[in-house]
Amino acid sequence: MINCNGKLHTSILEGPEDVIQSLHTSFSVEEYLRIKKGKLLFWETHYFRIIATLRRHRYFIPMKYTMSFLKDQINSIVFENLNEKEDELIKFQFIKIKDETFFIISSKSIDSFEKQIFKTYSLDLYKEEFILEGLFSNLSSVNSTIREIAKSYANENGLDDCVLLNNQKKIVETLYGTLYILQENKLMTSNLDSGCQDFALRTIFNEWISKSTRFNLVEQSINPFELQKSEELMIISLNQGFQFVTKYRKTTYAQKRLTQLSLDFTSQIN
Q1: Could you tell me if residue 116 is inside a domain?
Q2: Per residue in 139-194, pLDDT tens?
Q3: How far apart are CA 33 and CA 38, in angstroms?
């Protein structure tokens, strides 16, 4: 089931012709959200990110795009596909047609946050192209081409993931989410000035860590050499949940302290 500008369809092909054409030919703004047991997570944070992103891309924002209106549009899909045993990933896509803004909402089932899959997960640096540092790169659409090229690089080299660098050769993030680096009781992640995407999940998780006394969260510019000096590496994203890195080049990592941290975080999500 798809919500195309407020109307439900069983297929995108049932939507207006100009909307279908624009999906293939026009730029779009996208936001991914997660449904847990029928409930939309972190909606307020997502909403303000959506509105800010539309403004920065100079989209017309209709007055009806209130927090409650857009949430109702998402829920219309959730209620049609409701399965309380599964999590869902919601894709909220905005397109511009003759200076008017249209949206399309779709969903797919994904594993829950609580389901932790322990497997070999290797990564390396991607150094062929660089993300520009600065807040403009926080927008997910800005460096999408570089990410797609880097995914091909990872596949060609038998890697599960790659660490993206900015033009100052500092860590930005990985292809699939926000990177966290554990050194003793210090948990490091790249700051927004580094050019990482300003994900809603990143914001929520960082706020939660900052209130905890277990680790000292440090958001800063990070040199890639820190990876080899670290005890554990973790990647978080709405799609994959928590992914623990086992290998970076010749360095291997444990999966202990951050594993428990992820369990503690997911247990308090409701």
Answers
A1: no
A2: 999 999 999 999 999 999 999 999 999 999 999 999 999 999 999 999 999 999 99
A3: 12
Same domain, 96 and 142: no
DSSP 122: E
pTM metric for this prediction:
0.90
Q: What is the pLDDT of residues 72-112, one digit of tens each?
A: 999 988 766 656 657 889 999 999 888 899 999 998 888 88
Does residue 185 contact residue 221 with C-beta atoms inside 8 Å? no
Judgement on whether residues 88 and 157 belong to the same structural domain of the protein: no
Q: Are residues 171 and 231 in the same domain?
A: yes
Residues written for the chain: 270
Same domain, 189 and 77: no
| Structural domains in the chain (count) | 2
DSSP for 227-265, written as a single string: GGG-SEEEEEETTTEEEEE-EETTEE---SHHHHHHHHH
The CA distance from 92 to 143, in Å, is: 19
Domain holding 88, by residue range, is 2-110
